[in-house]
TrEMBL record:
InterPro entries referenced in this protein's UniProt entry, alphabetically: ADH-like_N (IPR013154), ER (IPR020843), GroES-like_sf (IPR011032), NAD(P)-bd_dom_sf (IPR036291)
Keyword NADP among record annotations: yes
Family annotation (CDD domains): MDR_like_2 (cd05289)
Name of this chain's protein: Alcohol dehydrogenase
Keywords: NADP, Oxidoreductase
GO MF annotations, alphabetized: NADPH binding; oxidoreductase activity, acting on NAD(P)H
Protein's organism: Rhizorhabdus dicambivorans
Stretches assigned to the Enoyl reductase (ER) domain: 12-300
Length: 302
């Protein structure tokens, strides 16, 4: 059997994405075949497409991008056919820009009632990265104060929520136009990234989703012994900082993902969806994501 997919045959810009027909995946033991209803477009997708990670994680061609999906079980081991599920795929395998994907059963989470496929697909990478930055990478504790850069973005808002649930005060560094939104999401204070310096007490930790010189300037307000954890691929110059920034790579965690999906379904965390686009428009979806400023996740609907 044949399925549609958007794949790359070489590294390059969005123009290398092509709609192709490929054999339908056959799930191995311990895998589930998922009929994809929604796949999120992440900033990292463009970096994989451009070959930014080829030095340590080369891919074989044709290669299907995308690793946040939601859909229904179509076969394989585990959950009954028709079960609504979401998953973060193995980032080194990917395969979300397609009609179907074979997923390890232990990566799948049954979707809660009231959650759309589009909402569910927007959660895995952003939600797990944001929550793990706070809970694992810096291990923020009740009563501490942390800086979160890009706190109104997809990853940042999950980091802010994780901090709030732990009783951690958050200073949000965001665009000037997003300061009010950051405060509404629960930040104790908000400053304009790159335009305002912090004049309050030092931060216990820094959680970064942006990177670059503006973040480095704020990191100078870190307490001795504090941590700087970043999920951004734009580097932070460590010169003169109280701690060395450490890149955090998200880890699959189905149990945690299930809790995040429940929180979104209950309206406790908002996941803005900027646009839903057909699979055939994957190249344009990546152009928009690469450019930034979409105001929410872009979702592909196979």
């Amino acid at each position: 059997m044949i399925m549609r997919a958007v794949a790359i045959g070489r590294y390059g810009g969005p123009e290398v994405l092509e709609l192709v027909e490929l054999p339908l995946p056959e799930p191995k033991p311990g895998e589930v075949l998922v009929a994809i209803r929604a796949a999120a477009v992440n900033p990292a997708d463009g970096k994989w497409r451009a070959g930014m990670f080829a030095g340590f994680a080369p891919v074989g061609f044709p290669h299907i991008l995308g690793y946040d999906v939601a859909g229904t079980v179509a076969g394989g081991d585990g959950l009954p056919v028709g079960t609504r599920v979401a998953a973060m795929l193995d980032p080194f395998i990917k395969g979300g820009y397609a009609d179907h994907v074979a997923v390890a059963a232990d990566r799948l989470v049954a979707m809660p009632d009231g959650l759309s496929f589009e909402q569910a697909a927007a959660v895995p990478t952003a939600g797990l990265t944001g929550s793990q930055l706070v809970e694992r990478a810096v291990d923020a504790r009740p009563g501490q104060r942390i800086l979160i850069t890009g706190a109104t973005g997809a990853v940042g808002r999950f980091a802010l929520d994780a901090a709030r649930r732990r009783g951690v005060a958050v200073v949000a560094a965001v665009r000037t136009s997003r300061k009010a939104e950051a405060l509404a999401l629960g930040a104790e204070a908000a400053i304009a990234l790159g335009e305002e310096d912090w004049t309050g007490v030092p931060f216990d930790h820094v959680v970064d989703t942006v990177g670059g010189d503006a973040v480095a300037a704020l990191c100078r307000h870190l307490r001795p012994g504090g941590r700087i954890a970043t999920a951004a691929t734009t580097p932070i110059d460590p010169q003169g900082l109280p701690a060395t920034p450490e890149f955090y790579a998200v880890v699959a965690d189905a149990e945690r993902l299930g809790r995040l999906l429940e929180a979104v379904a209950k309206g406790e965390i908002a996941v803005p969806i900027a646009r839903v686009m057909p699979l055939e428009q994957a190249a344009e979806a990546q152009r928009l994501t690469d450019a930034g400023g979409a105001g929410g996740k872009i979702i592909l609907a196979p």
